[in-house]
Amino acid sequence: MHTLVSIIMPAYNAEKYIAEAIDSVLQQSFSAWELIIIDDCSSDATKNIIVTYQNNDKRIKPIYLSKNGGRPSIAKNFGLKKAIGKYIAFLDSDDIWMPEKLAKQVEAMQQNSNCGLCYTGGFWIDKQGNQIKSFLPRYRSGNLLYKMLKRYELNNQSVLITKQALMSTLGGFNEAIIIGEDYNLFMHIMNTYKTCSIQEHLIKYRIHSNAITKKTRRVSDGVLVTIKELKLFQKFPFYAILTYLKAIRFKYITKTWK
């Protein structure tokens, strides 16, 4: 079977949730995928769980790093180097996809050949998997860069991008950015390519105390780097200033991103 979608899943001490995440990939109605799991030197049972799944499905392709990278961007870049699909998707080891997620996104991308990025809505869930809230894209399709400055609504787990868009922009994640590397990459893609959205709840994003963005204010660093790299003050001065002030407030004053 020809691999059309490469799924990148970084994992570190993920024994509690990774089976559920992998199961959500196996349950996709779309089957032309490969799942590249990058184990970042886990010290729990993560590797054993991965091996069990790999033995049952050769589309699951693990990478075991010899040294802990310390940040998701490094692990994800290892996975991207091995990816052979026309499209790239990302799924963290504690999150979940709905069964139609990939099928609907691939169809949308194939119907919009000039679209470099497609994203969806979803649910926030707690540690036990209980739904906390739901969210849907506010924007439809087109050139959405300036709108994302007004209100950024991409979730890493919901995004499908073309490998062409990835390689023609940054080629991967900026490893100097500790948190917010996905924002940086996706904004670069939206600066060059059109974006499309699917108005459906197709992911479950887990919120819990171990989430790295709960422990640091460095998520704003990815925003600040992106504003500078894309010269957004010149392109969209009003919205860039608002985003800049929001990032500064988040970094130094509060962890509430509003």
Give a structural overview.
The chain is of the alpha/beta class. Helices cover 37% and strands 23% of the residues. The chain has one domain (5-208): Spore Coat Polysaccharide Biosynthesis Protein SpsA, Chain A (Alpha-Beta Complex), CATH 3.90.550. Strands 1, 2, 3, 4, 5, 6, 7, 8, 9 and 10 form a ten-stranded mixed beta sheet that branches. The protein is globular. The model is unreliable at 210-216 (pLDDT under 50).
- Helical segment count: 10
Q: Specify the oligomeric state.
A: single chain
- The count of β-strands is 10
> What is the CATH topology assignment?
Spore Coat Polysaccharide Biosynthesis Protein SpsA, Chain A
Q: Helical content, roughly?
A: 25-40%
Name the poorly predicted regions.
210-216
CATH class identity: Alpha Beta
Radius of gyration: 17 Å
Keyphrases for this structure?
alpha/beta; single chain; ten-stranded mixed β-sheet; Spore Coat Polysaccharide Biosynthesis Protein SpsA, Chain A; 258 residues
Short summary:
The protein is an alpha/beta fold and 258 residues long. It has helices spanning 18-26, 46-56, 72-82, 101-111, 145-150, 163-168, 181-192, 220-229, 232-235, 237-252, and strands at 5-11, 33-39, 60-64, 87-90, 96-97, 115-125, 131-135, 141-142, 160-162, 194-206.
